[in-house]
Write a structure and sequence with these properties.
17 strands; 14 helices; BirA Bifunctional Protein, domain 2; Rossmann fold; elongated; binds histidyl-adenosine monophosphate; 37% helix; 430 residues; five-stranded mixed beta sheet; nine-stranded mixed beta sheet
């Protein structure tokens, strides 16, 4: 039998994280952790394994995800197990499990890895990490405001600008319900229209209109008028007295005028999961190459009741690391030193490696991260590598430096240089 060589490629749709990739992911996670804590959220975690039934209950379902996208298998005792495709059912399960002891409203966050058997493409993989932030135990609109402010703040903390790099789009599931009720659509037709509207942005205009007409012939014109509204005031008149309209209108107004955080009404923001009941939102990358949503969430009233016990309203969002990285790279926002030590010490000759290590260690003791390039490459190559890694400072060590104990600290971004003893140079960095 001939021996087939193993491939070095990872499994389809998942990533290996070489150090430069891990550094970017860590930078993303650090910013997520910091911002969630900035808003008083506490971290929780759980296993990637869940009993499959968790995703099959009515009220959780996203049909496409359950039927086509979950990684499900039988364990050795014939239990059906699923690699979690999202975190919301898990967090609802955990909150419901301790509902009697927990203090509400609670604010929890987590950064789980999730598995979805998707068609892999830019922005869509089979394993991704997702920041999940949720508030449980209040239906006050302040929770919606806080949630969207937190989402917005994450982008600000990455150095992005609302309206330039990204936009926040909102809708209300209740508005759709009011529309369907007025049009007297059957439950089946309403579900079919919702599924269709969820795909609106991915379809050609004509194709979409024809599909709506086929699904809800009599009501198609009104549905299309609603879905084409560019601002909330353009929705069909009869909806404007509905309480959900008034709630959403005030929300949009408050976000802009009280919090300087503009949000845009977008009736095509539907969100594929059946559990959403109120305001729903998505954040889109404005870069033409990344047309996907980077973040999605909304209010869900009934998830905890699946586990018995009382109704505990929740609201939250998820944002993925794949789309976040594409976003940061496309908009050139990855300029910070995230992949490297602050200082690189480069000896002019390998014989000076240990002297260089002594210098680097002095900086480390002062709390400055430092590495020594002990390779045998030429100086120009070493400097180029340090530059690519976005190291902030470099010190070149030759015989003269070792003898005089004075060194030149090169600022790699500004190109400037300073001369001094180690003590003096340390004080320039800290
Ligand atoms: P979602 O819209 O399915 O929501 O996912 C949220 C974000 O995760 C997306 O906008 C996208 O950035 C990222 N994402 C989703 N699937 C993939 C994938 N296959 N590859 C790469 N990135 C992906 C939820 O999952 C809800 N459970 C969020 C939530 C939390 N709602 C309330 N609380």
């Amino acid at each position: 039998m001939s021996k087939k060589e193993l491939t070095t490629d990872p499994y389809k749709g998942v990533r290996d994280f070489y150090p430069e990739d891990k550094a970017i992911q860590n930078y993303i996670f650090d910013t997520w952790h910091t911002t969630a804590r900035q808003f008083g959220f506490e971290e929780y975690d759980a296993s990637i394994l869940e009993p499959s039934e968790l995703y099959k209950s009515k009220g959780v379902q996203n049909e496409e995800m359950v039927n086509e996208q979950t990684y499900t298998f039988k364990d050795r005792s014939d239990r059906e197990v699923t690699l979690r495709p999202e975190m919301t059912p898990t967090v609802a399960r955990m909150v419901a499990g301790r509902a009697k002891e927990l203090y509400f409203p609670l604010r929890w966050y987590s950064i789980p890895n999730l598995f979805r058997y998707e068609r892999t493409q830019r922005g869509r993989l089979r394993e991704h990490w997702q920041l999940n932030c949720d508030i449980f135990g209040t239906d006050d609109i302040t929770a919606e405001i806080e949630m969207v402010l937190l989402a917005n703040q994450i982008f600000l903390n990455f150095g992005a600008e609302n309206g330039t790099h990204f936009e926040i789009c909102v809708n209300h599931r209740g508005l759709l319900d009011a529309l369907y009720k007025d049009l007297e659509l059957s439950e089946e037709t309403a579900t079919a229209v919702t599924r269709l509207a969820d795909k609106m942005q991915k379809m050609e205009v004509n194709e979409f209109e024809a599909a709506v007409k086929e699904t809800a012939a009599r009501a198609a014109d009104t549905i299309l008028k609603f879905l084409r509204a560019k601002s909330i005031t353009e929705v069909p008149e009869f909806l404007k007295e509905n309480s959900t309209y008034l709630e959403l209108e005030k929300f949009i107004d408050d976000m802009e005028n009280k919090f300087a955080c503009p949000v845009k009404f977008d009736p095509s923001v539907i969100r594929g999961f059946d559990y959403y009941t109120g305001i729903v939102f998505e954040i889109f990358d404005l870069h033409p190459e990344n047309k996907r949503a980077m973040l999605g969430g909304g209010r869900y009233e009934n998830l905890t009741t699946l586990f018995g016990g009382d109704k505990l309203p929740g609201i939250g969002f998820g944002m993925g690391d794949v789309t976040m990285r594409d976003f940061l790279e496309s908009h050139n926002l990855l300029t910070a030193n995230i992949t490297a030590p602050t200082l690189i010490v480069i000896p002019t000759d390998t014989e000076l490696n240990i002297d260089a290590e002594v210098v680097a260690n002095t900086f480390r003791q002062a709390g400055i991260s430092a590495a020594v390039d002990i390779g045998e490459r030429k100086m120009a190559k070493k400097l180029a590598a340090a530059d690519k890694q976005m190291v902030e400072y470099a010190i070149i060590i030759g015989d003269d430096e070792v003898k005089s104990q004075t060194y030149v600290l090169k600022n790699m971004t500004e190109g400037s240089e300073e001369c001094g003893t180690l003590e003096e140079l340390i004080s320039k960095i800290v």
